[in-house]
Design goal:
9 helices, 12 strands, 16% strand, globular
């Protein structure tokens, strides 16, 4: 309880008022994101590329509150080059869940080979992010190769979080293969265009029995909030934070946006009423002027 002392306009102190402390917010450990059976307090996942150095990477990740961080195995040193700085020094696996990804892979074979390498470098690590791209200009997912890679990886014991298009049929097929999460794009990777097709995302969410996380296309905090308000289980982003003028401040903004969007989804928004107003104050017992 909090004791508050109020004063009248003439300065006279009134009796203290006891106010109940605010309840813990739903996202504070009471509403965890569960991936492959493991709970996470944060629903924001962040990438580790495009920062000026590992120090800025660490500062941004800490500001975001993220517990899962993605690592592009083909572009980031996590032990492949022992004579170079390693990301693991800035983001040790003892403090963060690393999510090796296959950024830069354009075939199922390349993706599978890359994640098997990651498993060796990370001592048997099984949670991975699969992405197989169609072309280097759009970076749109090649869903045919993605499905092929997912089948191989799941059979090989990996716990696969998969980047895909916003096609509800493909998303369901990937779930049925055994992927532990499906991650449809909001718009093209690194575009910052936000959510271009919320209707498809909603279909994917309604049909899914595994977590659905928006991956790619988020540009600012409102995009993340909208994704969460739609019912997404989480949001993964990199460029929106790393390419901001102040990455650490943007990371903090994204943290708040994801939390606010989740709270709004759980609270349930009021229905939209086209051309129908509803006064917010009582319509009965109005003060009327004396006759």
């Amino acid at each position: 309880m909090t004791r508050v002392i109020a004063h009248r306009s003439d300065g006279v102190q009134t009796s203290p008022i006891l106010l109940k402390a605010p309840a813990m917010k739903p996202h504070e450990n009471l509403d965890p994101l569960v991936i492959a059976g493991k709970p996470y307090a944060s629903r924001l996942l962040v990438g580790t590329g495009k920062y000026k150095d590992f120090a800025e990477t660490r500062a941004a990740v800490e500001a975001s509150g993220a517990q899962i961080v993605t690592v592009a195995i083909r572009r980031t040193n996590i032990g492949q080059n022992p004579n170079e700085p390693s990301l693991l020094d800035a983001l040790p696996p003892s403090q963060f869940t690393l999510l090796p990804n296959t950024a830069g892979c354009y075939s199922a074979d390349d993706a599978v080979r890359t994640l098997r390498l990651a498993r060796e470098l990370l001592d048997g690590h099984e949670l991975v992010k699969l992405e197989v791209l169609g072309d280097p200009r759009s970076l749109y997912p090649n869903v045919v190769e993605t499905i092929a890679a997912a089948k191989t990886l799941v059979a090989d014991g990996f716990k696969v979080m998969v980047y895909t298009s916003d096609d509800p049929i493909i998303a369901k097929q990937l779930e049925e293969i055994g992927c532990v999460a499906v991650m449809p794009l909001a718009s093209l990777i690194g575009s910052g265009m936000g959510i271009l097709n919320p209707w498809n995302l909603q279909i994917i969410i309604e049909n899914a029995k595994v977590p659905v996380l928006v991956d790619a296309g988020v540009g600012t905090a409102s995009d993340a909030a909208i994704a969460m308000e739609l019912g997404c289980d989480g949001v993964l982003m990199n460029t929106a934070i790393a390419a901001a003028k102040n990455p650490v401040l943007m990371a903090s903004a994204m943290k708040k946006a994801v939390e606010a969007g989740r709270d709004a989804f759980l609270a349930g928004r009021m229905p939209k009423k086209l051309y129908s107003a509803s006064p917010s104050s009582p319509t009965s017992g109005l003060i009327t002027p004396a006759p």
